[in-house]
Amino acid sequence: MTHGVAEIARCLTEGGVVLLPTDTVLGLAVSPARSDAVDRLYALKMRPRDKNLPVMVADAGQIAALGAEIPPAADALLASRFVPGALTLVFGLDQTRAPGWLAGRAEIAVRIPDDARLLAVLRETGPLLVTSANRSGAETPATTVEAAAQLAGAPDMTVPGSGSAAAPSTIVNCRLSPVKIERHGAIPAAEIAALTGAVQ
């Protein structure tokens, strides 16, 4: 069964948990405005609640609307050929501009995916919490069928497919100067250093 953008977006805005392919590994997505969906996502992954969930957005405008503090090094990364793509950026938060669901958070990890369907969904829904579709601490399965079997329960919608990359996104902490690579992934450290001048 093929799931269209409108169907996926409706499931998310109504509080559903969606298992879907991304441009890196398989993901579980929920609307951050639906605390019930967020609770279910944590339960499905058996993920500790003190581990915050990363955010996917459609464009840099949505990042700014989250209250992210974007330093010059991050601007260079956002303008690079790796965005959209497998690059997750960690920003500090200005709580005076942040939405309510980010209350109490000092930072946020954000990515713009290089996937046409997912970008279309994000334009419909606004920012989504999207995390790898595996039980916490386990490797992310290759297909949605394998992922569903690993989770502690069933998502509300499964979009069939597989992740498009063997490696997860590279995570770069832009709160530090020079920036620091928090997780080595699809984009090599040398490429990050070439854009920002230096990395930790």
Automatic annotation (TrEMBL):
GO molecular function, one term: ATP binding
Keywords: ATP-binding, Cytoplasm, Nucleotide-binding, Nucleotidyltransferase, Transferase, tRNA processing
Catalytic function, reaction form: L-threonine + hydrogencarbonate + ATP = L-threonylcarbamoyladenylate + diphosphate + H2O
InterPro entries in the record: DHBP_synth_RibB-like_a/b_dom, Sua5-like_dom, TC-AMP_synthase_SUA5
Gene3D superfamilies reported for this sequence: DHBP synthase
SUPFAM superfamilies in alphabetical order: YrdC/RibB
Domain of life, source organism: Bacteria
Subcellular location: Cytoplasm
The UniProt record lists the keyword Transferase: yes
Segments forming domain YrdC-like: 2-187
Listed EC numbers: 2.7.7.87
Keyword Iron part of the UniProt annotation: no
One Gene Ontology term from the biological process aspect of the record: tRNA processing
PROSITE patterns per record: YRDC
GO annotation, cellular component aspect: cytoplasm
Cited PANTHER family: SUA5, THREONYLCARBAMOYL-AMP SYNTHASE
Family note: Belongs to the SUA5 family.
Protein name per the record: L-threonylcarbamoyladenylate synthase
Organism: Celeribacter indicus
